[in-house]
Amino acid sequence: RGKDEKYKVWMPKLRVVKEYKDKRKSIDDVERNIFTFKKSGEEKSKKMEKEEKLFRETFMYDKEIRVLARATAERSVPSQRRVDLPLTAGEQLEVIDAMRGRAVICRNAQGRYGYVLVEHLNFR
């Protein structure tokens, strides 16, 4: 044995079933579309734009929409009016505008806007 062969580690050669090998090649040869997520993102952004437009019309809100704070809903609360935002316990909300009184305008993860009472929110 020579010096180079002395330190080679012998590894068993794994045999691949011919059918599997052919199938794998055909799968690799097929052109894959890696941008499939884009469609759902476009649909989501269109829905968000629609919700924002509805919000601006309903609340007559012409200012820039900025997130003032993030809050978590402490309990589940159904909406009493059309302008109220229904809550589920533990839901993450973004506070858009603080009104006078006990209500704030919030946005949920689905992009819906509405009034939420401060007593139902946790700002930690």
From TrEMBL:
<dbReference type="Pfam" id="PF14603">
    <property type="entry name" value="hSH3"/>
</dbReference>
<feature type="domain" description="Helically-extended SH3">
    <location>
        <begin position="55"/>
        <end position="121"/>
    </location>
</feature>
<dbReference type="GO" id="GO:0050852">
    <property type="term" value="P:T cell receptor signaling pathway"/>
</dbReference>
<dbReference type="InterPro" id="IPR043443">
    <property type="entry name" value="FYB1/2-like"/>
</dbReference>
<dbReference type="GO" id="GO:0007229">
    <property type="term" value="P:integrin-mediated signaling pathway"/>
</dbReference>
<dbReference type="InterPro" id="IPR036028">
    <property type="entry name" value="SH3-like_dom_sf"/>
</dbReference>
<keyword id="KW-0597">Phosphoprotein</keyword>
<dbReference type="InterPro" id="IPR029294">
    <property type="entry name" value="hSH3"/>
</dbReference>
<dbReference type="GO" id="GO:0072659">
    <property type="term" value="P:protein localization to plasma membrane"/>
</dbReference>
<dbReference type="GO" id="GO:0005886">
    <property type="term" value="C:plasma membrane"/>
</dbReference>
<protein>
    <submittedName>
        <fullName>FYB2 protein</fullName>
    </submittedName>
</protein>
